[in-house]
């Protein structure tokens, strides 16, 4: 018996790639051990006109037109919330980009791993090798190290994933996925595994995500751990503050007792360091207090408000 899947994919001014994705899904599904029950395209405020749905009609499609450009992560949250509320009867939900970098042929790999796990976990696609340039690779490794250092978690996969339909209500009930989908899954301790896949080539054109967008995406993943991050920053800054005080004490002893001459500017340097570290400690403490205060406010999950951002739903 084939596995029924629903595909959720954000689209922003990339309708040619979306058409090629539909063609690939139609071609693959003819011989794959799964069936595509519906593709949910989340039109994330595209400025280009949406082609007529009949042009895509090789598989069932719904296009959700959003009121504005919400960003990749929020478009995913809205799409998943819509599926949870309005689409049923499938076994799993695939989250993927429509540009070809998430390869349609890897859907079968993710579903195979899901079946191995008895549909008791989310399966994320982890890149076995990356084809980006050296600058991107350097900053990506730096980002992974920073994320691990600040959160004690490892994040080495993106959004391409296979979610058991039984997990969907739990996923769209997580407030954190509104800012970062995969980071929110990790923080919630929802069961997940990663499956090695290769990065595909874009169907059409160039990526619309620039360096600034990548930075915001990375910082968004860290922001959902702000409570943990602020505690760690406070402890580290307090440690350096203590070490600086010890250094000041040594400086005073050397100045008063030792015959060794000390440069006059060294005292100014030590006092400046103490002032800077004092500010860092205070800022970290204030950030921690702010984050703890936010815990008194109930955060709403995407499933409770996603409808506010959908202008229109068009079905084939």
TrEMBL record:
Q: Which UniProt keywords apply?
A: Cell membrane, Glycosyltransferase, Lipopolysaccharide biosynthesis, Membrane, Transferase, Transmembrane, Transmembrane helix
**Record-listed E.C. numbers:** 2.4.-.-
Cross-referenced InterPro entries: Glyco_trans_2-like, Glycosyltransferase_2, Nucleotide-diphossugar_trans
One matching Pfam family, short form? Answer: Glycos_transf_2
Q: In Gene Ontology terms, what is one molecular function of this protein?
A: glycosyltransferase activity
Q: Where are the transmembrane segments?
A: 233-257, 269-290
What positions belong to coiled-coil segments?
Answer: none
Q: Which residues form the Glycosyltransferase 2-like domain?
A: 7-177
Record's protein name: Glycosyltransferase
């Amino acid at each position: 018996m084939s596995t029924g899947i629903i595909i959720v994919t954000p689209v922003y001014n990339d309708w040619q790639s979306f058409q090629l994705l539909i063609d690939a899904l139609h071609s693959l599904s003819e011989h794959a051990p799964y069936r595509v029950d519906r593709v949910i395209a989340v039109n994330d405020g595209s400025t280009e006109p949406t082609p007529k749905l009949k042009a895509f009609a090789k598989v069932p499609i719904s296009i959700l037109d959003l009121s504005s450009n919400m960003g990749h992560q929020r478009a995913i949250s809205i799409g998943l919330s819509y599926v949870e509320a309005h689409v049923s009867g499938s076994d799993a939900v695939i989250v993927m980009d429509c540009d070809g970098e998430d390869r349609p042929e890897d859907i079968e790999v993710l579903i195979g791993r899901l079946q191995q796990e008895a549909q008791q976990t989310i399966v994320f696609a982890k890149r076995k090798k990356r084809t980006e340039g050296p600058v991107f690779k350097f900053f990506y490794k730096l980002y992974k190290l920073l994320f691990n250092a600040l959160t004690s978690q490892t994040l080495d996969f993106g959004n391409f994933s296979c979610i058991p339909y039984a997990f969907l209500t739990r996923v769209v009930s997580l407030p954190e996925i509104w800012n970062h989908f995969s980071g929110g899954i990790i923080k919630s301790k929802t069961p997940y595994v990663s499956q090695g896949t290769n990065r595909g080539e874009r169907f059409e054109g160039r990526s619309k995500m620039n360096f600034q967008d990548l930075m915001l995406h990375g910082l968004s993943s860290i922001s959902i751990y702000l409570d943990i991050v602020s505690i760690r920053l406070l402890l580290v800054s307090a440690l350096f503050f203590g070490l600086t005080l010890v250094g000041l004490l040594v400086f005073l002893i050397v100045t008063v007792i030792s015959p060794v001459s000390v440069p006059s500017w060294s005292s100014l340097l030590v006092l400046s360091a103490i002032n800077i570290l004092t500010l860092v400690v205070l800022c970290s403490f204030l950030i921690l207090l702010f984050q703890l205060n936010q815990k008194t406010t109930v955060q709403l999950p995407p499933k409770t408000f996603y409808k506010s951002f959908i202008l229109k739903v068009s079905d084939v």
